[in-house]
Amino acid sequence: xxxxxxxxxxxxxxxxxxxxxxxxxxxxxxxxxxxxxxxxxxxxxxxxxxxxxxxxxxxxxxxxxxxxxxxxxxxxxxxxxxxxxxxxxxxxxxxxxxxxxxxxxxxxxxxxxxxxxxxxxxxxxxxxxxxxxxxxxxxxxxxxxxxxxxxxxxxxxxxxxxxxxxxxxxxxxxxxxxxxxxxxxxxxxxxxxxxxxxxxxxxxxxxxxxxxxxxxxxxxxxxxxxxxxxxxxxxxxxxxxxxxxxxxxxxxxxxxxxxxxxxxxxxxxxxxxxxxxxxxxxxxxxxxxxxxxxxxxxxxxxxxxxxxxxxxxxxxxxxxxxxxxxxxxxxxxxxxxxxxxxxxxxxxxxxxxxxxxxxxxxxxxxxxxxxxxxxxxxxxxxxxxxxxxxxxxxxxxxxxxxxxxxxxxxxxxxxxxxxxxxxxxxxxxxxxxxxxxxxxxxxxxxxxxxxxxxxxxxxxxxxxxxxxxxxxxxxxxxxxxxxxxxxxxxxxxxxxxxxxxxxxxxxxxxxxxxxxxxxxxxxxxxxxxxxxxxxxxxxxxxxxxxxxxxxxxxxxxxxxxxxxxxxxxxxxx
Length: 573
Prior knowledge:
The protein is an alpha+beta fold. It has helices at 45-51, 200-206, 238-248, 265-277, 316-326, 337-343, 361-373, 387-429, 439-465, 478-524, 530-544, 550-566; strands at residues 19-23, 29-37, 40-43, 55-59, 69-80, 83-84, 90-91, 94-99, 111-112, 120-125, 134-144, 149-154, 169-172, 178-187, 193-199, 214-215, 255-259, 307-310, 349-353, 377-382. It is built from twelve helices and 20 strands. The strands form five sheets. A six-stranded antiparallel β-barrel has the order 1-2-3-8-5-4. The longest helix is centred in the last third of the chain and has 47 residues, at 478-524. It is flat.
C-alpha cells in the first residue's frame, strides 16, 4: 500500500516524513502533528491551545536531514475542542493547521480506514526526553466512550504516550498505514497505563473536509444507509433497538441472529438507525449526548461495529474480500480472501444484513463460521426464518454452544475429579496451615457440573421432541461457568502448591531430625539422656502423623536439635 506521496506510510527504520513537531511561541514542544497535504497538518485541539497564538511546525523527517520550521495557524474553522458529555466521556479534540509555506507532496500521508481490534500499532511522538522523536508501540484494546475513540495499551510500561505525543500519527504495525491520531496518555490511580487515539473515521466526522485525504472503504455499505422514511420517530421498534444497542455495546454475546422481514418497515428502519449510530463516521453529534430524545438504551456507542455489509445479491467471495480489506489483509492478494482471513489473527465486529439473500448463502455461512471460530463477533440479519436461518442457528449458535458446554463439562470433571483428588491427597498428608479452605469452591464446581449435565439432558429431550422453540443451553450463563472454572482451577493450583511446600518442609524436617539423631547417638558413649529421647520421640511422632502438623513438628524438631547442641552432640552440623 502506498501513502499519500507514494512512499510507505510508516517505516520502522526511519523517521516518517509526515511526522510534525509543533512548538509554541515560547519555543517549548506543544505536541505532534500529521502532514496530510503540502500545507495542512492535523493535530489535537489541545496542542493548539497549549501553543497559544503562534505555532511553528517542524519537519524532523525531511529528506535532506534538515529540520525545516514553518509558521502555522488554525485553518479557518477547522478546530473542534474537547468536550465532555453527561458521563464525562470526551469528544472532539481535533484541529487542522495551515502552513505558511508548503512542503513537498511526497512527505504527506493519507489516513486509512481500518478495523483495529487487537492490532499492534506504533506512534511517533516528541516527549521531552526524546524531542527528536521516538516510536511508541501499543496494542488496540477497543473502543471507549461514545465518540468512537479507541483505547491503546502500551507494549511496555515505558511506551505510554506522554506530553509531546498528542497529535502524533498512529500507524498499523502490519500495514504501515496511518489509521488515527494520538489524543493523550494516562496513568490511573491503580497504576494502569493507557493511551487513546481518534481513528480516521472519527476524525472525518469532526472534520468532514478531510474525507478526500482518507482512504479505504467506509464501514457501512451504501445500501444500509437510512432512507428518508427512516427519519420518522414512529418507525422505531424500541425493544429491537434496545437489543441491537446492547449487542453493539458488547453485551457478551458473540453471535446474534435476528429476522427483519421485507415488509417490516419499522424493524428495517430500526436496524439502519442502529448501524448508522454505531458507525464512527456516520454518527451525528446529537446522538452522542444523552440529552437527546432517543429512547433509553437504544443508542449504541460509536464504533460498535467495524463493518456492516448488505449480502443481498452478493457472493460469499465478494463479502470475504470486503472483510479482508477492512481487516488490512492486503499481503498475498493472490490467496483467496477466506484463506487470508483464516490465517490471520485479526477480528472484527461484523454486521451482515440479508444473509439468506446472498447469491450463495451456504458458502457465506462457511465464511461466518470461520470468523466466529477466530473470535469475531457477528450480528446476522435474515429476511425469513427459513432453512438458511435454521442452518445458521445450528452452525453458529446451537453447535458452538454445545461444544463450548462440552469443554466446560470436561474441565469441571477434571477440577472435581483429578484436581480435587490431588488436593485431598495433600490434605491427608499435611495440616493446611495458611492454605485457603476450598470446600465451598469445590461445592460450586460440583453444582456447576450438575447444571451443565442437566442442560445436556434437556437438549436430548428437546431433540427428541423436535421442539424448535427451545434453544440449547439458552438459560445458562456459560461466561459465568467459565469464570467459575478459571477461579476454582486457579485456587486449587495455588492450594496444591502451598500444600506441596508444607510437605517439602515436612521432609526437610524429617531429614534434619535423622541427622541429629545419628550425631547424638555417636556422642552418647553409653550414657542416656531421657529428656533428649523424649524430645526425639515427640518430634518423630509428629512427623509421622497424618496429616502432619508441620508447624508443631517444626517446633518439636527445633527443641530437639537445640537440646542436642547444648549437650555438644550437634557440633558436626
